[in-house]
Inverse folding.
């Protein structure tokens, strides 16, 4: 039996001062998840650290400079030949959003409003595994999925 091939990706859960999260809409011409909403990020390049890859991907896709803080969780995305493992990292950002050609829209959304968007499958799966709860400092996330589900 041949084992699955995995690629590693990093995703930025960017929160603003009001507790809203940045999501970006993939182009309708995208090979994967066309016209769906996702968190900024992408594949880790050879020789890159997780933080370097996250900062590079967010800068390329949104023009924002980020400060990563903590890993929120991990989610797996299955494709016919490979699987992607997305590491979701909480971040703060500075600058103004300027999208790359890979995306056609962006929105700052209250966490509990995320399910109203047509989300990439991996992001929808991630959100099913967390609870969003309001506290005095804004939104925090609990019950984080910390393990990759393999089948």
């Amino acid at each position: 039996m041949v084992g699955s091939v995995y690629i590693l990706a990093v995703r930025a859960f960017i929160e603003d001062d009001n507790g809203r999260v940045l999501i970006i809409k993939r182009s309708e011409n995208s090979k994967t998840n066309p016209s769906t909403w996702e968190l900024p990020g992408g594949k880790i390049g050879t020789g890159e650290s997780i933080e370097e890859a996250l900062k590079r991907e967010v800068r390329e896709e949104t023009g924002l400079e980020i400060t990563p803080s903590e890993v929120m969780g991990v989610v797996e995305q299955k494709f016919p030949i490979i699987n992607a493992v997305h590491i979701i990292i909480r971040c703060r950002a500075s600058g103004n959003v300027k999208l790359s050609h890979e995306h056609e829209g962006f929105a700052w959304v209250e966490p509990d409003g995320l399910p109203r968007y047509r989300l990439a499958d991996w992001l929808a799966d991630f959100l099913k595994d967390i609870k969003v709860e309001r506290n005095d400092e804004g939104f925090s996330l609990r019950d984080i999925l910390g393990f990759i589900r393999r089948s």
User: Anything to note?
Assistant: The CA atoms of residues 45 and 53 lie 7 Å apart.
